[in-house]
Write a structure and sequence with these properties.
Blueprint lengths: L1 E4 L5 E6 L5 H18 L2 E7 L9 H8 L8 E8 L2 H11 L5 E5 L4 H9 L1
Length: about 120
């Protein structure tokens, strides 16, 4: 997992794929907290590569729960994934978060970014 901040904005791109450990989740949270503290809100572009739940460390799930307080600061979240199940789970989660969430297929990254910035 990697994170990248779009300079001067509240946009954070999160790339997810391969093995995922607690340290990566904690680093992502610190980045999100930094951007939220500076801008008061977040816009997320989450791009999922090959996701295999067996390659996610159990502690990573616990670290992910630490992100819950940040959810209220997310204005928009664009999920880009080729796995249908990732998009379906994301859409379900989008029903309980206050911000807008849309899912996109892997080839729609430009459309996802355009929507995120609109």
């Amino acid at each position: 997992m990697t994170t990248q901040i779009e300079p001067g904005t509240n946009v954070v791109t999160i790339e997810v794929g391969g093995d995922l450990g607690a340290d990566e989740m904690a680093a992502c949270r610190r980045t999100l907290e930094e951007v939220e503290a500076e801008h008061g809100s977040l816009r997320l572009l989450a791009r999922y590569g090959d996701v295999d739940l067996t390659r996610i460390a159990p502690r990573a799930y616990l670290e992910d729960l630490e992100n819950v307080p940040l959810v209220r600061h997310v204005e928009r979240c664009a999920i880009v994934a080729h796995q249908r199940w990732v998009r379906a789970v994301s859409e379900l989660g989008g029903r309980i978060v206050p911000g807008e969430l849309r899912t996109f297929d892997r080839g729609e990254t430009d459309a996802a970014r355009a929507w995120l910035l609109s």
